Amino acid sequence: MDKLRVALLGATGMVGQRFVKLLENHEMFELSVLAASPSSAGKKYQDAAHWCIEGEVPEKFREMTVVKADLENVKKEDNVDFVFSALPSDVARIVEAEFAKAGIPVISDASAYRMEEDVPILIPEVNPDHLELVKKQSNRGWRSFIVTNPNCTSNVLILALKPLQENFGIKRVIVSTMQSLSGAGWFGVTSMAILDNILPYIKNEEEKVEREALKIMGEFDGSKIIPAEFKISASCHRVNVLEGHTEAVFVELKSKADPKQVIEAMKNFRGRPQELNLPTAPENPIIVRMEADRPQPRLDRYAGNGMSVVVGRIRSDTVLDNGIKFVLVGHNTIRGAAGNAVLNAELAVREGYL
Amino acid sequence: MDKLRVALLGATGMVGQRFVKLLENHEMFELSVLAASPSSAGKKYQDAAHWCIEGEVPEKFREMTVVKADLENVKKEDNVDFVFSALPSDVARIVEAEFAKAGIPVISDASAYRMEEDVPILIPEVNPDHLELVKKQSNRGWRSFIVTNPNCTSNVLILALKPLQENFGIKRVIVSTMQSLSGAGWFGVTSMAILDNILPYIKNEEEKVEREALKIMGEFDGSKIIPAEFKISASCHRVNVLEGHTEAVFVELKSKADPKQVIEAMKNFRGRPQELNLPTAPENPIIVRMEADRPQPRLDRYAGNGMSVVVGRIRSDTVLDNGIKFVLVGHNTIRGAAGNAVLNAELAVREGYL
Amino acid sequence: MDKLRVALLGATGMVGQRFVKLLENHEMFELSVLAASPSSAGKKYQDAAHWCIEGEVPEKFREMTVVKADLENVKKEDNVDFVFSALPSDVARIVEAEFAKAGIPVISDASAYRMEEDVPILIPEVNPDHLELVKKQSNRGWRSFIVTNPNCTSNVLILALKPLQENFGIKRVIVSTMQSLSGAGWFGVTSMAILDNILPYIKNEEEKVEREALKIMGEFDGSKIIPAEFKISASCHRVNVLEGHTEAVFVELKSKADPKQVIEAMKNFRGRPQELNLPTAPENPIIVRMEADRPQPRLDRYAGNGMSVVVGRIRSDTVLDNGIKFVLVGHNTIRGAAGNAVLNAELAVREGYL
Amino acid sequence: MDKLRVALLGATGMVGQRFVKLLENHEMFELSVLAASPSSAGKKYQDAAHWCIEGEVPEKFREMTVVKADLENVKKEDNVDFVFSALPSDVARIVEAEFAKAGIPVISDASAYRMEEDVPILIPEVNPDHLELVKKQSNRGWRSFIVTNPNCTSNVLILALKPLQENFGIKRVIVSTMQSLSGAGWFGVTSMAILDNILPYIKNEEEKVEREALKIMGEFDGSKIIPAEFKISASCHRVNVLEGHTEAVFVELKSKADPKQVIEAMKNFRGRPQELNLPTAPENPIIVRMEADRPQPRLDRYAGNGMSVVVGRIRSDTVLDNGIKFVLVGHNTIRGAAGNAVLNAELAVREGYL
After folding, report:
1. Largest distance between two CA atoms of chain C
2. Chain A nearest-CA residue for B324
3. How far apart are CA C303 and CA C207, in angstroms?
């Protein structure tokens, strides 16, 4: 199979850099256009991007000239098959629609369209059937479609919740997060604010977590998504960790399950990407650690190349009925952002949407 | 009034150092004996203690010779009116009883006797009436008594819960903690373990939190404590913060209350120490911050000289019935340890027990 | 004595906040005008300043309205006796001259005028006689004058070097710095850049250190400063420390001195501020620690209320002739900035310049 | 070629773990015995070693039983061709001699024998000819020999100095280090000591740096090593960085060289391991970065798989005659310890000593 040609919108930011790294040697996709804000346009990628993730700028992209992230400039550059978007939300609102309208599919990490009725928020292991919802977007007069990613915090949480929903049903979820610095972007948290400290507030984060989970874990009835009916509440905090979100989760199940059953359900959890053997799919979407003191973000964030969620301390909770509590770690800019989008694109190819 | 003379058992550890600092110029107590393990005995205090809290060893204690922390050696040194104990739990089990039996009251920060039926765990603002329980200890054949402190995590949590219990009633509590390094002691967490990391496990901590709250917030019926009846569940984590525990708390109230009412209840909360105007009592046991991003441990841990709990982000929770969620910060080695014990002693004096 | 009335230009930044704190209850100065950039003008101080140093905004300044930092607006507010300036260098260049021209003395922490021939860079313990140089500024047509502070890194270094220069003479100095985050300002270093890391470069810093030392330690011959003749070279690095610069210093002395003699010289060092008993003068400009592992920035930065430099590990160096090496810690935003300026003002008052 | 069989003495510590990782799939060596202290003996490796470097315990060693690190127990296990030693110095003193005497070569990272007259401290790129010195050890009645590693700080420093010595000659070296936590071992630095702090003292470190450089950079005249004649002085500090030592270096050259020439000399530097194309040899022993703000430990420590030293900020120094200053970063437990030892063994094989 010839590789699909793809443009990356928002190529210079931190999530953009993760995309660049994941696409360096991708077997299905050829990253042929790097697009970003006007201030980066015209520069070589290595000069435009302040590279801030591990390793160096991949050699093949160093000298590539960045173009402005709009339809006109991207089209001038190459006839791409689809685009990845890591644009800021307000820009994404306009630019992503422009591409979809023009017949170029958009696989997005931006939050702009997430809560639109006809746009799926996709985690390939969780709700691959929601992909079909994109067909509704033709009603907008668009020749193609937008698929979105969940917020990073939601993403890794929902992965861990999915086998519980499937096996035991979920009634309530309470989650406290300890989120890494990279979630706020390179300049998001100044060092003086976080050294020897915790920031107990992340703007709009709790709302996103509470909102997105119900949509993603809802049911697609062929024409719309019926949100899941459980209740969810979050308290979100920033800690002095470079990458990897940690979350303490309390769940009220519909039917009783002891920790052993929960462990089994999580260990055995596989999704459509594993069935299809997609290139970016981790062998295990959830890795369960049995040690008393795992997961830890520095040790576990790169499990499954950053695509697995690591869960530990699975134990009973006596406050909630059929209560279970556990701790999870997931890589917020890989599984929680660029990696999930790449997996979305792989799924879309194999399901005939790209 | 002449100052009461007091010995400090476990004077060299980190909590011991907090006691030393709090007692340097205390208006009611004269710290006249510094006692510690055999390996420290015979040394000058400044050589025996690896001083690790802010500032320097107070001058008046620098040259004081440390004695072995047992009844015989302390008595040889001075005829003290009572003792503070910051001993390790296993040593405390034996030594504290020795003092109580010999007629010397023990105000302890150790966990050894906390859960004994006839021993109160005291937070002066929360359950000052439990102090009377010590009279039951004469049944052990003891001529005096032991009063204990809660675990540091429980202490600051319970202070914040008390006005909720009083005003609205409590049915369920779920708490996720982000605990500071000092809670583990000077050598408790090696630097390589915690840099760019979180440890999602603190041995026995969740059990302590879940157990102690019900006893402390229970009712003393004149002869025994009837535990409070709400349910409580904790997930405890260590973060890279020097001092000050942060806790994300979700509470189900018995009667509905909106955030404003909760804020008022917390702001107006005063206890017996404030009535009695005890020297170590903070003006406000709870300080409510209205900024979106407070409390923060580095900025708020020394509020009220480390004796106030700072609460912020008070908001409704939709998962629990009559749900309220908030974040708190409290100083774990002051309010959560030495400071609470000193306040216990002050209360005991004014109530006629010392 | 009536207090002198003073305006603070650049009141909202981190050094500005240090000024505010130092002037809260100052016995000689009444801070009556808070001035800052146009974007802050018109706001209450507590809203304009993102308070980022320990404690809270002092109560008396919370509601004070910030005015624009120029002559016109400050004069409208109050008839101040002099101004402190913590302005950015480019703004300082224009605004400070405006005040000096109009007859209002400027005690500045900005770098704008430091290297001008007729402007002293003053450390009151080191070169108080240089203050007289300000008289030359009348040649500019100014009715008053500007006095400047050294760069923070230079300041604490020069304090430690002064007794060596006085007692043994200095031929060469090599210094490697480990500088704190606050030196770069609140937004100067993003957290992702410095966690688990060191930044081996601080723009223009080495040049400043190398240049300012020779001027400050030079001789004032009544009409101009003849720079000191030793050689100095710096390597400047940023480390993950909140406040307090640490410097490893190697010195070639003119005449041989063993470590004991150096220790004595440093311990006995006193300057004009100590003679005059100025309110902000520390008892000891230099505190020598004899422990093997001191000074440490977290433990020693607040020595002498942040106005003392703490020196340790004084030992022979065999590479340089008559070589001595040592490590120092100094508080970069107190002694290295606001505190030194306040001390400059106190000196200027007592020497009849204010 | 059949692989040589090798035992690892001190397999459970942090340097031991680095050896295990480097030897997991080594083309020349088969790690067949894991040996450690009596308290570890008899346990499975994964239980005995508290794994603390990135990744997991390599699968092939997880279940391997650890034996006591002495000749008798190692021999019982396998007939090894040589041993690697990461033993503590006092144990190494006795055990390494035991092996050498019995005819089993020892490639050691321990400091015990470094300064013995007949024992080379080897950096394969720097002094491969010193290997011949081991022949002298037969005078001890040993049937085989010990080869040692430099101290980690010396190692990466000397690599950077070697091309300067070769091309321009060296007269004096002054170095200030900012050393990582791993250099002190897993339990070496407690978190409360180093958070928001620097420790300005590392026991014996400065002495080691000053002593070892002259021996390693000395000349082997066929029977003994004539130490290099330059002068060297160090100031050693611990910073809150996980891995990777950073060093600020000032060098007085014998003959004048501008930064460009120094850059060229470093870039072009190759040694015997590169000639021989040894498996663990990095392509470039020294990588020169031209960016103003490199090298940085978090970004550069894994350059050349942790075997290259990264040098930056090469500039003139005006204090020393023909002065050059620069900053370097090197991985202290790979190039500075296990990796150098493995490279030593590879060299010894190819030169006919193993």
Report:
1. 61
2. A233
3. 28
Q: Mention every residue, 6+ apart, whose C-beta is less than 8 A from residue D160.
A: D249, D266, D286, D309, D311, D326, D328
Weakly modelled stretches of chain C, pLDDT under 70:
1
- In the structure encoding, which two tokens stand for residue C284, read together? 């000891």
Pairing outcome for strands C309-317 and C323-330: antiparallel
Is residue C282 within 8 A of residue C307, CB to CB? The reply is yes
The distance of D287 to chain B (nearest Cα, Å) reads: 27
Chain-centroid distance, C-alpha B63: 28
SS3 A219: strand
Q: Are B225 and B212 in contact (CB under 8 A)?
A: no
Does the predicted interface ipTM exceed a cut of 0.90?
yes
Residue of A173, A177, A319 for testing the chain B interface, max B β-carbons within 10 Å: A319
Pairing of strands A225-226, B245-253: unpaired
- Residues of A engaging C, defined by a Cβ cutoff of 8 Å: 52, 181-182, 186-196, 240-242
Among A184, A235, A329, CA closest to B246: A235
Cβ neighbours, 10 Å, residue D255: 10
CA distance C203 to D84: 45
Count of alpha carbons within 13 Å of C223, Cβ hemisphere only? 1
pLDDT in tens, C130-157: 999 999 999 999 999 999 999 999 999 9
D107 phi and psi angles, rounded to 5 deg:
-105, 110
Reply yes or no on whether the pLDDT at B1 is more than 80.
no
What would the mean pLDDT of D28-34 be, rounded to a whole number?
A: 98
- Mention every residue, 6+ apart, whose C-beta is less than 8 A from residue A111: A89, A92, A148, A151, A208
D298 neighbourhood in chain B, CB within 8 Å: none
pTM of the complete model: 0.96
* Chain A CB contacts of B290 below 8 Å: none
* B327 within 8 A of A235, measured Cβ to Cβ: yes
The partner residue sitting opposite B186, judged by closest CB among D52, D190, D195, is D190
Tokens 């769940």, residue located: A251
Contact B192 D242 (CB under 8 A): yes
Calculate how close chain A gets to B173, using CA atoms only, in Å. 7
Q: Which residues contact A216 (CB under 8 A, 6 or more apart)?
A: A121, A122, A123, A126, A127, A130, A150, A154, A158
Of D54, D196, D299, the CB nearest to A195: D196
Query: If pLDDT is split at 50, 70 and 90, which confidence band does A40 have?
Result: very high
Nearest-by-Cβ selection for B196 from C54, C195, C299 = C195
CA distance C213 to chain D (A): 14
Which DSSP string corresponds to D112-140?
TTTT-TT--B--TTT-GGGGGGGGGGGGG
Is omega for the bond preceding C295 within 30 degrees of 0, making it cis? Answer: yes
User: Residue D109 — φ and ψ, nearest 5°?
Assistant: -105, 0
Provide mean pLDDT across the span D60-77: 96
Angle between helices D205-216 and D152-167 (to 10 degrees): 40
* A6 contact partners, CB below 8 Å, separation of at least 6: A23, A29, A30, A31, A32, A33, A80, A81, A82, A83, A84, A345
What is the predicted pLDDT for the residue at A53? 86
CB contact under 8 A, B181 and D195: yes
D52 is catalytic: no
Q: Within a 13 Å sphere around the CA of D317, how many CA atoms are in the beta-carbon half? A: 30
Between strands C225-226 and C219-220, the pairing is antiparallel
Q: Measured between CB atoms, which of B54, B195, B299 is closest to C196?
A: B195
DSSP state of C18: H
Nearest to D5 by CA among D96, D13, D26: D26
Cβ neighbours of B241 in D, within 8 Å: 195
